[in-house]
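Reproducibility note. Readers wishing to regenerate the assembly model reported in the main text can use the exact inputs given here. Chain order matters: entities are listed in the order in which they were concatenated for prediction.
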Amino acid sequence: MDISAYKGIHVFCETSKGKIIENSLELLGEATVLKSKLSHNPEVTAVVIGHQLEQYSDLLGEYGADRIILIDDVKYAQYRPDFYAEALAETCKEYKPEIVLVGATLKGEEIGPTAAKILDTGMAAHCVELNIREDGQFVQVVPAFGGKVLGDILCPNFRPQMASMKAGLATKQQFSGKKAVVEAFSPDIKGFGDKIEVLEVIEEAKEKVSLGGAELVVTGGFGIGTQDGWQKLEVLASKLNGVTGCTRPALDEGWTEHEETMIGTSGVAIKPKVYLGFGISGAAHHTCGIKTAGLIISVNRDANAPIFDVSDYKVVGDWEAIVDALIEAL
Amino acid sequence: MSLSIAVCVKPVPDSDHYDKITIDPKTKRVNRDGIPTIINTMDKNAIEAALKLKELHGGKVTVFTMAPDSAVENLRRVLAMGVDEAFLCSDRALGGADTWATSYTLYKAIEKTGEYDIILLGNETEDGGTAQVPSQLGEWMAIPHMTNIINMTYDEGKVTVERKTDDGSIKYRVALPAVFSVVRETNEPRIPNVMGILKAKNKPLTIFRADDLDLDPAFIGLKGSPTQPGDIFSPDMSRKSELISGEPDAVAQKIIAEIKKTGVMIG
Ligand SMILES: Cc1cc2nc3c(=O)[nH]c(=O)nc-3n(C[C@H](O)[C@H](O)[C@H](O)COP(=O)(O)OP(=O)(O)OC[C@H]3O[C@@H](n4cnc5c(N)ncnc54)[C@H](O)[C@@H]3O)c2cc1C
Ligand SMILES: Nc1ncnc2c1ncn2[C@@H]1O[C@H](COP(=O)(O)O)[C@@H](O)[C@H]1O
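Running the prediction on these inputs yields the following structure tokens for the assembly.
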């Protein structure tokens, strides 16, 4: 494989309910940072697959895209993993990017590796950091064992170098007024043909809570113990103008129905200015999601709870007494 | 029609013991001594889904794993759940495989042992957690594949699945053979009973060495992997951990004061 033929950074931009998702905008920002570290100043290309996509062009330019490739066809109106992955792979064959970034969303986690296999190249999943080494190689930092260990991944002999990253880790960059060149691309794809049939698309009715932009997050864990207890956290969060986040056990208990507010490896990564944690033990699976939070204060009745090691301030005691006192004081 | 179902399972270190994981500063290897190995949780969901399909439609459930010889113990437990047969691909030459090389090896093992209507996997492992093997296995096998499955029913040669997305779910009807990976919500995996454990002792369990499979040596193990590992390290997340003590009121005042210092506007 002639590696030198591959130039440029592609970002697969995912849409949801007629909008480009935040994760994709963050990855565009990440791509502009990587671009600045590469001496040949590669182009940043946003690849959008779907139907009736024109509307996104201005937005993607402003978030850093130099070029936009629109793969627009009625066959992409509903999500078919085989169609989307093959279209992304075909784009790589045609445009030969050196790097491809894909959001580690429930769709991206399927489109990315499928495309990587079609292209027979490497892909690093759930990267927490992306870098360019002095020799120009793309370094992808991936977590193992729930984030206890981090490791560098390289893809020295194949192109493109593919990586996925979930929401909340990269930072959006804005270039107001920047216009991207728009190109239409119509790859000839087959997927698995009529072996896959879309029966029904079920859109969740309930509003999603976004922890992404939150400045203050009140997080509850298994130690909260009851639904009534959880209500108190919600009251505290709203008094503090913040939002509530949860650990996996708190979600499993059904105290909150907002799966999207679960913080950690299988949930979201957040970077609020303030994180308040109540009744949380501090498993690596959870704490890897709060690494870049500003102030971390946690309350746990167990003086040896690991969450304390990663906290700026710790309170050893019953969470409820502290939450009651906070609500009272506000 | 009875169903022939393959399930891929991976033995992983028990996440309850992750605190024991260290990195040898010299060799830069992850030291996981003393950490018990369990079958990846979502793979148990995949086994459960397979056993349910077998109960409804008849057939056979075969598991595949690529792991060291010690995985025999894990596989006995899987057989005790009700799985009929197990294959272990174990060889030094397979070590260090990334998802591309892992899915290739699993594909070759599956191909060697027979024809399967449905191939099930967990959606992701808890140690590496890439969630890439299912899609890549499907591509190697060149049959339809889909991840994040929460629901699955079989009838008339096809499977109807519901897959989770970030904004809801989508229902598909997929022709077999096909590959699916399931998530935790799919079901509650059964726990082996005494009868199952006794029966498992006599169930077929075969170990494949690399030579037993018709593998392209350029596609296996660390050497055959497109991605290559570099440095490893433990992130240092420790902070000052200053104790706030006193009566709840005083603690609350201190917390509020600290929040205010950050400039966040509260109430
Ligand atoms: C593959 C995998 C992925 C995972 N992904 C995630 C993830 O993304 N996010 C996540 O959060 N978890 C995840 N987990 C689970 C994770 O490993 C931990 O089990 C989880 O984070 C623990 O949640 P917790 O701290 O709420 O509960 P626990 O560990 O049960 O801790 C509860 C804490 O509350 C304290 N407590 C109890 N009562 C009180 C009281 N009255 N006052 C004060 N403190 C009290 C206890 O001392 C204890 O420390 C994952 C696990 C696996 C295997
Ligand atoms: N070495 C392996 N042997 C058997 N199955 C595996 C192996 N690695 C991954 N899998 C399967 O692929 C799924 C996803 O793994 P991963 O892509 O590593 O997160 C797992 O839940 C298993 O079902």
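We highlight two features of this model. Chain B has a mean pLDDT of 95. The longest strand of chain B covers residues 145-155.
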